[in-house]
C-alpha cells in the first residue's frame, strides 16, 4: 500500500510504501513539486488566454483573436506539456534512486499515534534509539495510521 503526501519530523515530504514486514520511505524531491506547479500554472494561463481569445474577435482588431489563440497554444505547449514532461522525468529518476530508508517492523519498539485538527501523527520509537515521526492530513492521515497499525500488529 502506498501513502502519499506524508511529512517527516523535519518537514520533508515523503511517500511511504508499506509491505507486510517493512515500510519504505521515498523522498519527494522539490523539483517534482515545482514541475507539478509549473504544469498547473501553464494550464491556468492557457485557459485564461483562451477565454480572452474567444471574445477578442468581437472587441478588437481582426488579427487579435488569431494572435491570442497562437499565444494560448504556445503557453499550453510550454507550460502544460513541458511541466508534465518535467514531472514524469523526475518520477522516473526518483524510481531509480531506491528507498531513502527502510523501517522494519521488528526494529520498532513502540509506536504512538494522535489526531489533532485533522492531522494524524505517528511516532515510532526504534531499537537503534532513533525516533521517527510521520504526519499527514485527510485521507492520507487515515491511511498512515491504518497502515502502521497493520504493520506493527503481531500476526
Distance between the termini: 18 Å
What's the shape?
elongated
Strand content: 25-35%
Summarize model confidence as the mean pLDDT.
87
Fraction of helical residues: 40-55%
Cα-atom radius of gyration: 22 Å
Q: Supply the helix-strand structural class.
A: alpha+beta
Quaternary structure classification = single chain
Count of DSSP E strands? 7
Please describe the structure with a list of short key phrases separated by commas or semicolons:
single chain, 155 residues, alpha+beta, seven-stranded antiparallel sheet, 3 helices, 7 strands, elongated
Describe the 3D structure:
- There is one protein chain.
- This protein is an alpha+beta fold and 155 residues long.
- It has three helices and seven strands.
- A seven-stranded antiparallel beta sheet has the order 4-3-2-1-7-6-5.
- It is elongated, with a radius of gyration of 22 Å.
- It starts with a strand and ends with a helix.
- The model has no long low-confidence stretch (mean pLDDT 87).
How are the SSEs ordered, and which strands pair?
Blueprint: E1 2-8, E2 13-18, E3 22-27, H1 30-59, H2 62-97, E4 101-104, E5 108-116, E6 119-126, E7 131-137, H3 138-152
Antiparallel strand pairs: 1-2, 1-7, 2-3, 3-4, 5-6, 6-7
Give a short overview.
By secondary structure, the protein is α+β, with helices and mostly antiparallel strands. The protein has helices at residues 30-59, 62-97, 138-152; strands spanning 2-8, 13-18, 22-27, 101-104, 108-116, 119-126, 131-137.
Amino acid at each position: 500500500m502506498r501513502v502519499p503526501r506524508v511529512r517527516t519530523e523535519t518537514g520533508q515530504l515523503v511517500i511511504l510504501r508499506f509491505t507486510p514486514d517493512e515500510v519504505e520511505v521515498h523522498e519527494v524531491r522539490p523539483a517534482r513539486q515545482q514541475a507539478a506547479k509549473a504544469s498547473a500554472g501553464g494550464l491556468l494561463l492557457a485557459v485564461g488566454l483562451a477565454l480572452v481569445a474567444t471574445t477578442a474577435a468581437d472587441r478588437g482588431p481582426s488579427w487579435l483573436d488569431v494572435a491570442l489563440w497562437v499565444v494560448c497554444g504556445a503557453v499550453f505547449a510550454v507550460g502544460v506539456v513541458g511541466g508534465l514532461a518535467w514531472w514524469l522525468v523526475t518520477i522516473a529518476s526518483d524510481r531509480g534512486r531506491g528507498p531513502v530508508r527502510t523501517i522494519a517492523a521488528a526494529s520498532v519498539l513502540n509506536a504512538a499515534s494522535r489526531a489533532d485538527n485533522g492531522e494524524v501523527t505517528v511516532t515510532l520509537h526504534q531499537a537503534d534509539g532513533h525516533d521517527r515521526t510521520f504526519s499527514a492530513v485527510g485521507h492520507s492521515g487515515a491511511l498512515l495510521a491504518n497502515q502502521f497499525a497493520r504493520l506493527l500488529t503481531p500476526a
